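Is this the right way to post structure tokens for a design question? Let me know if I should format differently. Anyway, here goes:
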């Protein structure tokens, strides 16, 4: 196989918060891959996670489906210990099992293999193999499968790729820092606050505080195929000019303009894709097609419509002499070298968002890997004792199906972000802490829904401060819906993680995801302007104003007879549990808070609307 495969190394160990584990096993495995002669791998992802089935599964899915790595080696968690769950996590996500590879590993590393339950298989186009935890065992296992790996990669890919730059990402997990803070709601309902201790802050202030905490995560090289919508991280210049030669813009004849109009002897043809080694002389011309190189000596192209045939060879059908009807101008219908893109010119600047045309320009310039800002790893966790998975039927008494997860996953997806699903956590403190810890060990941004209001089971805020030692930047926002929206930062090891605690009410979660989470993710992904787009529109019907500024779900109508501006219709009942008010909405009207003077926004008034 020529070129490289893109690999991921997943080290699985409960001790992965200890730096030496990642420091030993990661480089040992990376070295192993690089040592193979005909298989120069690029390690694109390297991570150390605890022996946690859910976390392992989510990372493997992310690497296979989102990063689309070719080859993933996991190391660790394959044995008989109670914590060893790597094979189960892997089996749960592979589409096809690689039985032959597994039996080769078992046979050839017998009797050690008796102790290993590792599996091998394929998810989509990614080969995933479970190796034992020790670097020595990994080396032995790799030696067994190595002779066949290249061929497997070829079969999985159908094509070869070269990766310009290896991208390492190691997320170390750390136990949360010691308890700090004075919130006692975890001790029981009697100790909860009866008035929220968090000031209510205006939306713009909250957004500003939140964006201040969003840092760009790093850079990575992505192929053209994966670059759409990404933000350019390094200035990209053209190596070659476009067109690389003087090119005709017409189908016609290459001529010397000094010959003027009149008859020309046809001495040959220039076609796109070729390059004739001729020198055109006075009195002669060559047929030429659009995009073909103009022959040396010629300084103009005359389109075929401005000529007529004078003499031809009946047998061969060849033109012998033609007549130019219009006197040509010098340079007419010729694109000079570099007239579209000059060599060395900037074709994509830092901070620009890659659109289809930009991809075309990069392709034209032969740039197939693009330096872009990395996107943050996002995790979603629904909280609430009452929640069950959407597929649960019939619904047990007192339960409701989790809809927030689906809404948030798809809202993020619509805007180009993927997220890992950390399931549903009940409101029991230890379960919630455990789920948050698991998620925080992996992701850059954790989005929780529920548990941030004033109920006795709303423990998220106090857990964030007292268990994780986090800083709550805001815990209430002056808006409807979304009053209890919470934003915190938590340090896990050296790394700052962002936590959004969105209200559980489905409408509130959807609205606040658009107002806070998406701008944060865009800023972390390098967007110069991470905010949403605002359009002014005319309100069609009177809307009553609320004491809080309201983000009112609505439908925008872009073209209305007799108006040069859009109009906006409410989706009806705006109660925050009614997800139907969001369904079909394509904008949020930004309604001001009610005042003594203004209690209604009247039909015909204008309002800002946020495009969803
Ligand atoms: P909370 O913010 O936890 O007080 O929840 C507020 C309301 O939202 C309650 O009626 C919850 O049942 C509901 N809720 C919370 N989480 C979800 C969810 N993931 N999907 C649907 N409804 C939810
Ligand atoms: Mg709740």
């Amino acid at each position: 196989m020529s070129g490289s495969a893109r690999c991921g190394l997943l080290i699985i160990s409960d001790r992965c918060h200890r730096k030496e584990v990642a420091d030993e096993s990661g480089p040992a495995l990376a070295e192993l891959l690089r040592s193979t002669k005909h298989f120069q791998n690029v390690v694109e992802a390297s991570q150390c996670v605890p022996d946690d089935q859910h976390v392992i599964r989510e990372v493997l899915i992310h690497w296979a489906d989102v990063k689309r790595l070719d080859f993933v080696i996991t190391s660790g968690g394959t044995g008989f210990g109670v914590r060893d769950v790597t094979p189960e996590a892997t089996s749960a996500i592979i589409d096809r099992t690689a039985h032959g590879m597994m039996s080769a590993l078992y046979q050839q590393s017998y009797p050690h293999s008796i102790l290993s339950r590792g599996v091998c298989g394929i998810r989509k186009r990614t080969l995933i193999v479970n190796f034992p935890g020790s670097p020595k065992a990994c080396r032995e296992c790799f030696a067994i499968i190595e002779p066949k790996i290249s061929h497997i990669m070829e079969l999985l890919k159908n094509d070869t790729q070269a990766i310009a730059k290896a991208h390492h990402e190691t997320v170390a997990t750390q136990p949360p820092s010691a308890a700090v803070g004075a919130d006692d709601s975890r001790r029981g309902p009697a100790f909860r606050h009866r008035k929220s201790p968090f000031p209510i802050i205006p939306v713009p202030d909250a957004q500003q505080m939140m964006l201040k905490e969003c840092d760009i995560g790093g850079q990575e090289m992505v192929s053209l195929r994966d670059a759409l919508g990404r933000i350019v991280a390094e200035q990209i210049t053209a190596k070659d000019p476009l067109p690389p030669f003087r090119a005709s813009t017409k189908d016609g004849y290459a001529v010397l303009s000094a010959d003027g109009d009149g008859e020309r002897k046809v001495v040959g043809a220039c076609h796109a894709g070729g390059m004739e080694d001729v020198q055109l002389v006075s009195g002669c011309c060559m047929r030429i097609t659009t995009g073909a190189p103009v022959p040396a000596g010629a300084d103009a192209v005359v389109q075929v419509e401005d000529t007529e045939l004078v003499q031809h060879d009946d047998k061969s059908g060849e033109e012998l002499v033609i007549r130019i009807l219009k006197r040509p101008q010098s340079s007419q219908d010729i694109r000079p070298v570099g007239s579209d893109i000059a060599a060395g010119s900037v074709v994509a600047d830092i901070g620009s968002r890659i659109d289809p045309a930009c991809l075309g320009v990069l392709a034209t310039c032969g740039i197939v890997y693009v330096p872009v800002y990395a996107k943050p790893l996002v995790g979603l966790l629904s909280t609430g004792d009452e929640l069950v998975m959407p597929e649960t039927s019939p619904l047990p008494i007192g339960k409701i199906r989790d809809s927030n997860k689906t809404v948030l996953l798809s809202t993020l997806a619509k805007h180009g972000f993927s997220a890992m699903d950390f399931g549903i956590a009940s409101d029991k403190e230890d379960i919630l802490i455990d789920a948050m810890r698991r998620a925080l060990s992996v992701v850059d941004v954790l989005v929780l829904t529920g548990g941030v209001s004033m109920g006795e089971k709303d423990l998220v805020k106090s857990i964030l401060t007292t268990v994780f030692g986090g800083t709550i930047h805001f815990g209430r926002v002056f808006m409807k819906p979304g009053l209890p929206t919470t934003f915190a930062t938590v340090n896990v090891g050296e790394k700052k993680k962002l936590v959004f605690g969105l209200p559980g009410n489905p409408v509130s979660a959807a609205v606040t995801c658009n107002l806070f989470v998406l701008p944060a993710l865009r800023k972390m992904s390098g967007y110069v302007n991470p905010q949403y787009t605002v359009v002014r529109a005319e309100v069609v019907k009177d809307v009553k104003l609320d004491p809080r500024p309201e983000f009112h779900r609505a439908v925008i109508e872009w073209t209305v007879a007799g108006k040069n501006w859009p109009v906006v219709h409410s989706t009806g009942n705006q109660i925050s549990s009614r997800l139907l008010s969001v369904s079909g909405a394509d904008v949020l009207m930004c309604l001001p808070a009610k005042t003594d003077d203004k209690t209604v926004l009247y039909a015909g008034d204008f309002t800002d609307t946020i495009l969803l």
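Format looks fine. Someone answered above. Worth noting: The radius of gyration is 32 Å. Residues 384, 427, 450-451, 457, 504 surround magnesium ion (ligand 2) (CB under 6 Å).
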